[in-house]
């Protein structure tokens, strides 16, 4: 059984083809600049040379057709024909409170995804475009939707409700949803396997630290809290997002700078976070380099970021009544030994102790805590595509 995993953005499309008999990655790639001049597809079949296909990609349908052509190409493809694609698993960012698990896509599901688009206007519409394009190009293959929000649907009301007039929840479903669910699920499952313990017996804090970042409290295999909220803007300071802040600042800021709501929202999403504080970049490598040269704002951005992550780890340990493991994943979490060390510094009272030698590693599954640490610290590269493929296989059979 071969599953094609699709992750559609507004002008890009990431894909993987996975053989689910042995979970082997057969091919992967990305289509970029969809609908923009200079579009192309980067394609790589396992064991073969990478290729770049420069073609006009006027829309998602054109991009997916090029992807299927690349997968079936006699020279650099991975399969003989598109009939070998058994099913397609789609990443869908927002399922609201309508979906607590992955589902086979039918008209009713598509309508629900469309209804959730107002909660994720930058993500759900291109997700839908990818679904519709795949249905046209691969009409015989069943489609499955895997939601970023689904894993967090186990949160209790005390975690997902805002202290706002209750009518906002009743009328408009204003509540915390959380994101990066497939990542948090994958790394918490994998942590249990690495530690040789049942997930049902563990309390795990999972730290997905990329340009977008979130932390989850996973108690006995279920998400009981997470840092992102109604939108991905809440929670940690991120690459360009502000994270938690006093909401009164927004009105004050708008009046002082004569900003519209759209301008203020754009600034909080795209001009804030470590970019806003450092004034340098949203890339932590650039900020670390500037801090090493004595740039005080760069150092402040790093210290602020580490402190926010540390605060959430402590809060979730308290919320779960203890913690057995802390997991670092995603771009920064997987690749920055400095970030892992600084975040864990001061958490020794919880039983967290980093082994500097073990921690000096990038992108490799490993335990980075000392042998005698009561709380294990793990580095686990995330694999959201594999979660999507597994859910697709389980549903399609």
TrEMBL record:
<feature type="binding site">
    <location>
        <position position="384"/>
    </location>
    <ligand>
        <name>Mg(2+)</name>
    </ligand>
</feature>
<feature type="site" description="Transition state stabilizer">
    <location>
        <position position="241"/>
    </location>
</feature>
<keyword id="KW-0460">Magnesium</keyword>
<feature type="active site" description="Proton donor/acceptor">
    <location>
        <position position="148"/>
    </location>
</feature>
<keyword id="KW-0479">Metal-binding</keyword>
<keyword id="KW-0808">Transferase</keyword>
<keyword id="KW-0067">ATP-binding</keyword>
<keyword id="KW-0963">Cytoplasm</keyword>
<feature type="site" description="Transition state stabilizer">
    <location>
        <position position="180"/>
    </location>
</feature>
<comment type="similarity">
    <text>Belongs to the acetokinase family.</text>
</comment>
<comment type="pathway">
    <text>Metabolic intermediate biosynthesis; acetyl-CoA biosynthesis; acetyl-CoA from acetate: step 1/2.</text>
</comment>
<dbReference type="GO" id="GO:0006085">
    <property type="term" value="P:acetyl-CoA biosynthetic process"/>
</dbReference>
<feature type="binding site">
    <location>
        <begin position="331"/>
        <end position="335"/>
    </location>
    <ligand>
        <name>ATP</name>
    </ligand>
</feature>
<keyword id="KW-0418">Kinase</keyword>
<dbReference type="GO" id="GO:0000287">
    <property type="term" value="F:magnesium ion binding"/>
</dbReference>
<dbReference type="GO" id="GO:0008776">
    <property type="term" value="F:acetate kinase activity"/>
</dbReference>
<feature type="binding site">
    <location>
        <position position="91"/>
    </location>
    <ligand>
        <name>substrate</name>
    </ligand>
</feature>
<feature type="binding site">
    <location>
        <position position="7"/>
    </location>
    <ligand>
        <name>Mg(2+)</name>
    </ligand>
</feature>
<dbReference type="GO" id="GO:0006083">
    <property type="term" value="P:acetate metabolic process"/>
</dbReference>
<dbReference type="InterPro" id="IPR004372">
    <property type="entry name" value="Ac/propionate_kinase"/>
</dbReference>
<dbReference type="InterPro" id="IPR043129">
    <property type="entry name" value="ATPase_NBD"/>
</dbReference>
<comment type="subunit">
    <text>Homodimer.</text>
</comment>
<dbReference type="GO" id="GO:0005737">
    <property type="term" value="C:cytoplasm"/>
</dbReference>
<feature type="binding site">
    <location>
        <begin position="208"/>
        <end position="212"/>
    </location>
    <ligand>
        <name>ATP</name>
    </ligand>
</feature>
<dbReference type="Pfam" id="PF00871">
    <property type="entry name" value="Acetate_kinase"/>
</dbReference>
<protein>
    <recommendedName>
        <fullName>Acetate kinase</fullName>
        <ecNumber>2.7.2.1</ecNumber>
    </recommendedName>
</protein>
<comment type="function">
    <text>Catalyzes the formation of acetyl phosphate from acetate and ATP. Can also catalyze the reverse reaction.</text>
</comment>
<feature type="binding site">
    <location>
        <begin position="283"/>
        <end position="285"/>
    </location>
    <ligand>
        <name>ATP</name>
    </ligand>
</feature>
<dbReference type="GO" id="GO:0005524">
    <property type="term" value="F:ATP binding"/>
</dbReference>
<feature type="binding site">
    <location>
        <position position="14"/>
    </location>
    <ligand>
        <name>ATP</name>
    </ligand>
</feature>
<dbReference type="InterPro" id="IPR000890">
    <property type="entry name" value="Aliphatic_acid_kin_short-chain"/>
</dbReference>
<dbReference type="InterPro" id="IPR023865">
    <property type="entry name" value="Aliphatic_acid_kinase_CS"/>
</dbReference>
<keyword id="KW-0547">Nucleotide-binding</keyword>
């Amino acid at each position: 059984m071969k599953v094609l995993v699709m992750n559609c953005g507004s002008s890009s499309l990431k894909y993987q083809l996975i053989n689910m008999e042995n979970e082997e990655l057969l091919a992967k790639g990305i289509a970029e600049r969809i609908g923009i001049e200079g579009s192309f597809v980067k394609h790589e079949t396992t064991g073969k040379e990478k290729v770049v296909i420069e073609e006009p990609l006027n829309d998602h349908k054109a991009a997916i057709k090029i992807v299927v052509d690349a997968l079936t190409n006699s020279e650099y493809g991975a399969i003989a024909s598109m009939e070998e694609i058994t099913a397609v698993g789609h990443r869908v960012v927002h399922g609201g409170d309508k979906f607590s698990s992955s589902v086979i896509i039918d008209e009713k599901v598509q309508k629900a995804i469309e209804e959730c688009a107002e909660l994720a206007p930058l993500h759900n519409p291109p997700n839908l475009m990818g679904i519709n394009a795949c249905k046209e190009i691969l009409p015989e293959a069943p489609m499955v939707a895997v939601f970023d929000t689904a894993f967090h649907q186990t949160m209790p009301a005390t975690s997902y409700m805002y202290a706002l007039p209750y009518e906002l929840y009743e009328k408009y479903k204003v509540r915390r949803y959380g994101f990066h669910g497939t990542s948090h699920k994958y790394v918490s499952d994998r942590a249990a396997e690495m530690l040789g313990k049942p997930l049902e017996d563990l309390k795990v804090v999972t730290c997905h630290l990329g340009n977008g970042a979130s932390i989850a409290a996973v108690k006995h295999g279920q998400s009981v809290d997470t840092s992102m909220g109604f939108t991905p803007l809440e929670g940690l300071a991120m690459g360009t997002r502000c994270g938690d802040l006093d909401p009164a600042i927004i009105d004050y800021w708008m009046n002082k700078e004569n900003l519209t709501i759209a301008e203020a929202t754009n600034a909080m999403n795209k001009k804030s976070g470590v970019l806003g504080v450092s004034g340098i970049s949203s890339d932590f490598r650039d900020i670390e380099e500037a801090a090493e040269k004595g740039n005080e704002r760069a150092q402040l951005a790093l210290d602020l970021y580490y402190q926010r992550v540390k605060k959430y780890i402590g809060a979730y340990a308290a919320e779960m009544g203890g913690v057995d493991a802390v997991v670092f994943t995603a771009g920064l979490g997987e690749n920055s030994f400095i970030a892992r060390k600084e975040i864990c510094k001061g958490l020794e009272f919880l039983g967290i102790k980093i082994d500097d030698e073990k921690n000096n590693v990038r992108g490799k599954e490993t335990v980075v805590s000392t042998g005698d640490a009561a709380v294990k610290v793990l580095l686990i590269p995330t694999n959201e595509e594999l979660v999507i493929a597994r859910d697709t296989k389980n549903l399609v059979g």
